[in-house]
Amino acid sequence: MHVHLLFVTEFRHKVFTGAHLRRMGEIMRSVCTDFDCDLLEFNGGNNHVHLRVDFPPKVARDQTGQLPQGRLLLLSTP
Predict the structure, then answer these.
(1) First to last CA, the chain
(2) DSSP result, 21-68
(3) What pLDDT, on a 0 to 100 scale, did the predictor assign at position 62?
(4) Which of 16, 42, 76, 77 gives the lowest tally of CB atoms within 10 Å of its CB?
(5) What is the mean pLDDT of the chain?
(6) Is 33 left (phi over 0), alpha (psi -120 to 50) or beta?
(7) Residue pLDDT, tens place only, 53-71
(8) How does residue 78 score in pLDDT terms, banded at 50, 70 and 90?
(9) Is the separation of the CB atoms in 39 and 53 below 8 Å?
């Protein structure tokens, strides 16, 4: 199942730099590996991030947005 996920900053504030996007890409690749998913595409701008992920059939549709979001928050917190 291919899923397009979009994460947007609150009020579309411009807070992401190139370094942030590179680190989020690393984290998302790690998350996808942990959940047996394939990260097909990752890109973003200064106020949003786009991901295109191929989830295996064992993952329920309502869980697709929860898995990467929770892990991204945990891994990016100092």
Answers:
(1) 33
(2) HHHHHHHHHHHHHHTT-EEEEEEE-SSEEEEEEE--TTS-GGGTTHHH
(3) 64
(4) 77
(5) 80
(6) alpha
(7) 888 887 766 665 565 555 5
(8) very low
(9) yes
Burial class (CB in 10 A: 0-12, 13-18, 19+), 25: middle
Three-class SS state of 1:
coil
Mean pLDDT along residues 21-49: 90
| 43: amino acid identity, one letter | N
| Number of residues that this document lists for the chain | 78
Q: Are 50 and 6 in contact (CB under 8 A)?
A: yes
Q: What is the residue whose two structure tokens read 């917190």?
A: 77
| Cα–Cα nearest to 29, from 45, 53, 9 | 53
Mean pLDDT of 12-39: 90
